[in-house]
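#random but structural
TW: two for the price of one
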Amino acid sequence: GRGIRGATSHCLGQNFAKMFDITFENATGGRSMAWQNSWGCTTRTIGVAVMVHGDDIGLVLPPRVAPLQAVVITIPNTKMSKEDTGRMKETGQKMTASLLAAGMRAKLDDRDNYTPGWKYNHWELKGVPLRCEFGPRDLEAGHCVVVRRDNRAKETVKLEDLPTRLPKLCEEMQADMLARATKKRNEAITTCTSWDGFVAALDAKKMVLTPWCETKESEELVKKRSMDDGEGGAAKTLCIPFIQPPLEPGTKCFVTGAPATTWVIWGRSY
């Protein structure tokens, strides 16, 4: 039942203009205080992504915004000859180069002073979407094992198919993560058409969709009543959804009983 402000717009009015004496020459040649607006996608958006997608292992970054989309991890062992070890490193470099040429943000981790398990954990913690495991058997077979960060699913991919398969995997992962997040959000929203059940839904950690009359006085009333009747603080309007459910003629505001003009989502804020 909690929302967080991420990318928002604000009408700042003349508050900062008066504070910092920001003026302009008006149509009559005089000076007027500027009116200002503010739009911003802040670092809160990063925090929301971490909270929504992350797990107990670490970050899970959506591929489209991940600084690094794929990491190639070579897995040499002590039984390999010097020539095979060199061939593995060279092949790992070619794999990485092919991904970069395909437009992916990729990196080779061929460090030999860390175990494969340590390197897996290192990149999982950072939330890199795809991991390409490349060991001795993979070298001989001409393929690698690709592991998704979001669901740990593994897939064997031929080396020549990496530049085409991995971008598709990124898109699949992006779509799956969006679908899971959307489902989680939708399951956290309940609908109330009257005050009955509104505070109980908030206390059950739900956001609440209600018909509303869009007045300042009614929002202040909701804040006061939800503070008095609930356990987790006052509720406030979080957003008026772009996609509106049908608002039947005669629908009443859930708190005042006045004619409703829109559907709105209420919740508590962090």
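TW: number two ↓
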Amino acid sequence: HQHAEGGAAVAMAGWLLRRAAELRRDFTWREAGGSLGDLGTFVPLLVGLTVECGLDVGTTLVFTGLYNLATALAFDVPMPLQPMKTIAAVAMTDPPMDVPQIVAAGGFVALVVLVLGCTGLMERFNAVTPFGVVRGMQLGLGMLLCAKGWTLAVWTDGTKQSMRGLWGPDGMALGALALALVLASAPTTTTTAVDVDGSAGIGADRTHTRARGGSNDARVALVLVAVGAVIAACRPGSLAALRPGPSMPFLTFPGLADAATGVLRAGLPQLPLTTLNSVVATCALAKDLFPDKPETGVTPTGVAVSVGAMNLCGLGLGVMPCCHGAGGLAAHYRFGARTGAATAFLGAGKLFLGVAFGGSLLTLLGKFPAPLLGVLLAAASAELIRAG
């Protein structure tokens, strides 16, 4: 028995070393640029949940960095890591949810999805999901992301009552220049054949032959994020607020009242979005974007277990509930990411920032120019709309 356990440990260590070597081999600046394509969703929701609900930026950065590293090892595609958007949106509405309620909502979704994955029910759910539903969700989500990007770039807040000025670090001129840069580097894409037989599920017999070129300048996301970081750092008070050292995680376990509120207000509405977008639609998009990669590890069971396990690992520490998603995968792909090396790079960056500066990063992140985030989000939506 001990010999078998020792053999399993050696085999696991060997696999980790081989996978790490593959990630080092695959890493290029193209992958680094692609890793930043999904910040248009991550940064605004992280800052909003921190300000409105009391989540800790440093703890979330450390744990989401670890999640990114784990998914980079598990999946041979740039598997995204995004906030659970329905939970985030509900949590920031009036009255805002507190951290125990958010923990309860995220834990409920994670547990249900993990059970669906471990029992094989997610595979059955995928098999009976009509192909048109998946494509419709991709198209609809792409249009919503594009609208969100437009809102970030043009309006001062989500109420759309006040437009941004033309000039300045948050002006529309900055967004227009960023959009021009993105369009100038846009890939050429052609569709050579699409033949769908109407079957259900991502494993159904269908043909998608698409000649997708990579970005002519995969470093565009690196440029936009670097410019945004410089602008944010130059604003009054940004660097003065930084303090060295990580945040100390605090245990947060919801009581019965908080658990009921979190599950009913945010957990139940999030569950269908997680099963359809985070699992089924993500698997379908991965198959569409990477037809030459049959062994990516992206299956309904694998993705469901990943979503459930990573959230349960951070449960009780006030970490922002996270999932995968078709929009995030499209964003990474749009800006040049093709392998897990992209998410490994992103995870290492989050882990470093979370350990080095902890929660003091909130002021700096909050001053990142919203028009640049909006352009990143809108540009990423194009890949998802094209897939739909």
